[in-house]
Specification:
This protein has two domains: about 190 residues, 3-Layer(aba) Sandwich (Rossmann fold), CATH 3.40.50.2000; about 150 residues, Glycogen Phosphorylase B (Rossmann fold). α8 packs across α11 and α12 crosses α15. The chain has about 375 residues and is α/β, with parallel strands linked by helices. It comes from Candidatus Falkowbacteria bacterium RIFOXYC2_FULL_48_21. It holds the Pfam family Glyco_trans_1_2.
Amino acid sequence: MKILLFIDNPSQDSLYTFWAKALRKLGHEVIYFEQMPVLYAQPWLAKSNILRKICQWGLREKHLWGIRQIWPIKIAAPLIIGAQNKMNKKFIETARTLKPQLIIVLKGLGIYPKTLLNIKLVTDSVIVNFNGDDPHNLFSSNQNVIDSLAVYDHVFTWSKMLVKRLTDDGATRVHYLPFAADADVYKGCENPTAEERKMYGSDIVFVGTGDPERKSELESLSDLDLGIWGPYWDRNCKKSHLMARLRGGRIDVNTMAKVYRSSKVVLNLMREQNFSSHNMKTFEIPSIGAFMLAPRTSEHADFFEEGKDIACYGSAHELREKAIYFIAHDAERAAMAKSAHEKTLRYHTYIQRMTELLRLIALEQPPRA
């Protein structure tokens, strides 16, 4: 099958590379359509990093009125819209030329509903959407995303709680499709040496972007041997004891694997949109072979058995209590990490998720009128 994969931002390369790799392993041809390079190809954007950043964020809305009310974006809005129009035209032309059997849109900030309708007029492609965020979270979404839901043949979501809301928004076929792990990614990562374990390791570790919610949870652990890695923590922790726990900024996959494998307890701290669900770390951490301490949610309970595969908490007090307990219980921690690792690779890989996605499309796709 020929599959056209629309990518919002190719610099955020984890999810789309995992999907594409899995689909190719299943024998399908996957062709990328990358939104940002097409937008950036406009002459007025070619040599300006600042304008490119304005264009990227001009597609989003941070709050009810949108960041287009910020004067640089407001001034550049006609140029952004012009570039976006050209990108939509290019997307239609690409679909018409390639005639893929399946088009997968990951998020789709810049796609107009009428673009999807035009593609349906010139191809027989099945068009589906997957959004790794909550489309109602205006920090990472916009009205294009919401208005297009009714046009897609299928909409897939990582959250059970979003299924009904997306249906209420007009999507006709909404499917639950959890995140997963790429079984190969961490096999190629080198295990840390004894020296690297000292460099990267800590009793408790969190790797991820800094934000106020995560800061609040970590503050209950600030007197312990805690390591924090990831961007934006310095700006969130200026007046916090956590400043002393910052170990580094953004890190690559190989370094992250060394950090996880060198540490005893790896935290999975949820963002607000994931509080009742799960996130990519749900499978990322056990796929590396690390021990995970995560929020107690119904979806985590679907994937793993608490006390056998992973440890869970429901409050800051329980988070601290569980962290201290498992720091001191090496054998129990290792057995749980091994069990979760095996379960992840057996049931929760992107090969299995893409197989399910294609099965649901084949099962429920009606003939095009």
